[in-house]
Input
Amino acid sequence: ALALGVGLADVLQWVAEFRANDPETPVVLMGYANPIERMGNAQFIERAAAVGVDGIIVVDYPPEESAELAALLREHGMDLIFFLAPTSTDDRVARVPSSPAATSTTSRSPA
Output
């Protein structure tokens, strides 16, 4: 994407175009913090909500530092989704914000 000059604004435009034809299929964006922070969290959240994003996965936002972002996303009808490794400890899992704005998924096997 970088080699082709594709940025976050382009992705949000594609979501808007997709939503024009499909308002039902959930759209989750996955990426890194830098493009979001470069755009500005508030501006990104407003633009993402306006085009119909349902949730985001930010691979370098640890749960311990994401409660505020998760709450802002929830206020705009979006979820912050975390991946937890199968080897995640119970303590690590407990650190995922308990806010309804934060959603997590894991493939942990029952003990």
